[in-house]
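Why do we bother with holo predictions? Because pocket geometry can differ from the apo form. Keep that in mind while you read this record for beta-D-glucopyranose.
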Amino acid sequence: MSKKKFFVTLLTLLVVSAVALSACTPAAEPEVVVEEAAPEVVEEVVEEKLAVGIVLPTRDEPRWIQDETAFKEAFTAAGYDAEVLFSQGDSALEKGNVETLITKGVKVIVICPHDSAAAAAAADAAGAAGVKIISYDRLILESEFVDYFVTFDSISVGEQQGQYLLDNATGTGNPLYLYAGAASDNNAFVFFEGAWNVLQPKIADGTFVIKNSSEAVALQDKPTLTREELGKIIGQVTTNWDFDDAKTLAEANLTVAGAADKGDVFILAPNDGTARAIADAFTVDADVTSYFVSGQDAEKASVQYIIDGKQSMTVWKDVRILVKDAIGAAVALLEGSEPVSKGVYNNGVKDVPAIQSAVTVVDKDNVSSTLIDGGYYLASDFTGLD
Ligand code: BGC
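The structure, written out:
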């Protein structure tokens, strides 16, 4: 088989696997993409080179290994080896990765930026080389060259985290500890905004009392926060998406808080890695009687924490859907057509066409019916699962 024919076959198979994946998920309606991605059209535009490259933010968080695995599985099913590069939390390395892929002749780069604003330089470099950019999970800000955005419903992620805490609170005066993601990640703002939508009215009415952020207390009567206001709170309660930072901050908060600020506590933790770190700090505090803590990503370690009663919930974002959407968009861009768009996200300089997928709350009661029965994880990956 010639290389060109091989790649055409690959894209055909990717389309087929996109169809297969779409059969399992109601969220993204990729049929239109599939219809548009007829192999004959693709054959006119693809070259005898790797056409799609993927750049992910770090290997150091299980979340992004989930994405790498899903990309590789989708490409391997198509008989092809995907090039996935990691930026290791370094915007300069990220730009270098993009340049490497451009040099290799890719036509589309799927990139999840380490730093949403700093990644504009990488997107601009790709745009100048005529390479299309798909922003993946995190929006690249301030670049004209972001062609498409595949994302989960990130406002809903925060809202579900807040709702879970609220659903488990009774009475008034419940101690609330707030934590956020990295200020360099646009998603951190969106998650916090979602959580604030749900929690703020319940802070204003006395159900919750914020214990670890003077900035949040100063703004607690405002239902809607500006980006600058969100930035002030996030600046005070950021984990930087780092487990060690999260644990250190939680320990510092607990040192300052008195016994009366503890007891049965409620913790907004932005994702699973930070949730485990924060939970570990709260577990060893003698004045903490019980806690509810949120999470996000359905990382295996957190699923085990949930089974063991050490983390209360996670917001599961099925990365297979995001991968399928990214591949569908890449195929459309390769053939010169517009990917299916369900709306736009403004990145500061343009409205970026986007597709958004729903998320699922997982706690002890539905681990099996969501993550195991759907084949996301094996029951044998865990202990103590009923
Ligand atoms: C992602 C989360 C992830 C976090 C830290 C966010 O942008 O949406 O899934 O946990 O970054 O990597």
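The longest helix spans residues 3-24.
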